[in-house]
Amino acid sequence: GPVAEAGPSGVSSCPTMEILKPSEENIRRAGEALARGLLVAIPTETVYGLGASAFDVRAVARVFEAKNRPVFDPLIVHVDSLEMVDRVATIPSPRVRALMEGLWPGPLTLILPRREAVPDLVTSGLPTVAVRLPANAIARAVIAAAGLPVAAPSANPFGYLSPTLPEHVARMLGGRVDFIVDGGACPIGVESTILDATKEPFTVLRPGGMPLEAIEELAGPVEVFNRSVARPTSPGQLPSHYAPRTPLYLFPSGGLAEARPVGRAAALLFDPASLAALERSGRAAAFAELRVLAPGGTSLEAAAALFAVLHELDGGGFDAICAERLPEAGLGRAVNDRLYKASEK
Ligand code: TXA
Ligand code: MG
Question: Which of 48, 136, 187, 334 is 20 to 30 A from 309, comparing alpha carbons?
Answer without folding.
Answer: 136
